[in-house]
């Protein structure tokens, strides 16, 4: 815990994203669930990094579904959308980033923006790959159906 006289931590460029409002679930992806087990749909989370071997799983920090207290966990990139660079000033997020060993791979705004664009494409590809060749339920509220004009 920091002392009251300690200076605030330096702001840091991270990648912010939102949790999908609805995700396909179950046998053949015919069920829909709001958000994820840990995060509410639409929750803003920060990407702290990815484990070695790809970006299918990223380390996130954000408000937990049940308590609203900030939690840190690895989650599937396919459950996130609207990746963007964000200058983070929150002491809680900065502290968790300092404690984390996820291996953040960007330095500064430009790298965060480049990685945000790349993660957005990867997340869309992982969502499409997960249920490839399987019809969507009717009506469907999954992220792909919500953002694709009819």
- Radius of gyration, taken over Cα atoms and rounded to an integer in Å: 16 Å
The secondary structure category is alpha+beta
Estimate what percentage of residues fall within beta strands: 25-35%
Strand count, sense and closure of the main sheet?
5 strands, antiparallel
Could you tell me the number of beta strands? 7
Listing every helix as H and every strand as E from the N terminus to the C terminus, the arrangement reads EEEEEEEHHH
**Continuous helix count:** 3
Report the principal-axis shape.
globular
Portion of residues within helices: 10-25%
The neighbouring-strand order within the major sheet is 6-5-4-1-7
Low-confidence stretches: none
User: What is the total domain count?
Assistant: 1
Overall pLDDT: 85
Instruction: Report, as a whole number of angstroms, the end-to-end distance.
Output: 51 Å
Question: Mind explaining what this structure looks like?
Answer:
The protein has 150 residues and is α+β, with helices and mostly antiparallel strands. It has one domain. The chain is 25% helix and 31% strand. It is built from 3 helices and 7 strands, in the order E-E-E-E-E-E-E-H-H-H. The chain has a 5-stranded antiparallel beta sheet, with helices on both faces. Strands 2-3 form a two-stranded antiparallel sheet. A hairpin with a 6-residue loop joins strand 5 and strand 6. The longest helix has 23 residues. The protein is globular, with a radius of gyration of 16 Å. The mean pLDDT is 85.
